[in-house]
Amino acid sequence: MAPAYVVGPIDASQVERAYCLVAAVGYDIDVVAWRQLCARTLLRNYPSPYVEDIAVAEDPRGYVRGIAILRARHSGRYGRYLSVPVFAIVTAADARGVCETLLRYIRTAAREKHCNAIHIASLRTDRWPVGPEELEMAFDGIVIPLR
User: Fold this and answer.
1) Residue 122 pLDDT > 90, yes or no?
2) Domains of the chain
3) Alpha-carbon distance 19 to 22, whole Å?
4) Fewer CB within 10 Å, N or C, the chain?
5) How far is CA 124 from the centre of its chain?
6) Main-chain dihedrals φ then ψ at residue 24, nearest 5 degrees
7) HSE (CB half, 13 Å, CA atoms) of 125?
8) What are 54-108's pLDDT values in tens digits?
9) 80, HSE (Cβ side, Cα atoms, 13 Å)
10) Predicted local distance difference test score (pLDDT) of residue 133
11) Pick from 13, 33, 11, 142: which is nearest to 78 by CA?
């Protein structure tokens, strides 16, 4: 029987465990900056289509197996699209299951934010690709059309 993963917005109990995954992948972000990013997400009183969301995939035992950071963007080529600058999965047993569950969540989020496509960036651990000062990355990953 395949494990069932729960994917949803990060909650306060997952911040430290999610950081372990981000650090294991090799992103250049320290724990203080990670906590600040999560705090901004957790302190919002209502969802917004224009700010970053952090999605976490958790296995039945409570281990964080996947993480994605989502933000709506606009480009001349794709119109409104969902940018996913961080998409990481860490598991020894069921990478496909975690990936499929996390992608299903991302597709739903993109439709709810009225996006035409999803851009999942290539893994680039040499810089942390999230923040208000960060310019939009080149389309160096994959683009998944939704319509």
Assistant:
1) no
2) 6-145 (3.40.630.30)
3) 5
4) N
5) 14
6) -65, -35
7) 9
8) 999 999 999 999 999 999 998 888 899 999 989 999 988 899 999 999 999 999 9
9) 11
10) 46
11) 142
Structure tokens given for 55: 């999605």
Distance CA 120, CA 110 (A): 12
Query: For residue 141, which amino acid is it?
Result: G
What's the pLDDT tens digit per position in 20-52? 999 988 888 899 999 998 998 888 877 666 678
Written as six digits, the tokens of 25 are: 């992948």
**Per-residue DSSP letters for the chain?**
-PPP-EEEE--GGGHHHHHHHHHHHT-S--HHHHHHHHHHHHT-SS--TTS-EEEEEE-TTS-EEEEEEEEEEEETTTEEEEEEEEEEE--SS-HHHHHHHHHHHHHHHHHHTT-SEEEE----TTS---STTPPPPPS-SEEEE--
